Amino acid sequence: MIEVSEAAEALLPKMDGLLFDMDGVLLDITESIRRVNCLAVPFYLREVLGWSAGDDLLTSEDIELFKNAGGFNDDIELTCAIVLHYIVKEHEHPGTPADTLNVFKPNLAGYARKIAEAGGGLDVAESICLEHFNYDGRHEINLDYRKREITQVFLELFAGHESVEMYGHTPTRYLGEGYWKFDKPLIDVARLTRAAATTPAKKLGVLTGRTSGEAVMGLRVASLEDMIPAANLVTSDDKHLKPDPRGLKKLVDRLGVKAGIYVGDTRDDFRTVANYAKAYPDGPPILAALVLTGPAGNANAKIFRKTGADIIASEVNEILRWMLHE
Fold it and tell me: How far apart are CA 243 and CA 109, in angstroms?
């Protein structure tokens, strides 16, 4: 399935830039990063704070609520927002088990909705959670809300034994196999090779919320190391997280793209392209292509149509087939 706008059809003959998100586009992360999204919260509550919290505390659908709220392209910030939700709930209802706390309003869905209404992101989430507490209350909550340790838990769960290679430090909290090993490639490398060779030749790049170490490992899993060198990556290390358009601008400038598409799988990916068009009206045109291979799957089709994406496809290879007129 693919839906292509007139603007995208008109751009195709002069398109020389093919830019990708990584998670949910080049890689199936259902059992890797999305599993870490779900596991990092109970792991922190249990192993760091000493709570009773099972690994089934969160579902992928819970995580998607926050992805759709916007401002959570950084999965660690998303994790922090959910951890804080539970810490505040426990502060209000001391001694209540973690799997019961979400019964009290606002539950996760209501919390995510409030975040979306206020503009999205971790800063908004922290404001919502803490706005009703006085100084002493906030201080007590912050004793448990330790973002550095939440970050450590998330990174170690993802990298496991490869923590040194990815992040430069030895794991101390989680000593098992890293969930990155459950990444699965989605892109057909042979078809991408043919698409990149069409006239005009395509410059290939990646704009991702992953760190550079994570992104390089992802390219390895997808067998794209030779086609997309590290110099063609813009990552969270560049400090411009989506939907900030500066990351996309940096990638476009670095590759010398004159006209292209950016293939993503979330609303923030679309917002990045839309923000780029507003911020750089005289820059090279970049259109938004959204695929349905992210963790939410086909459920996102209606949302993507409403946003006005230039291309909506079942998966990234459908876009390559369109480019090749297959």
Answer: 22
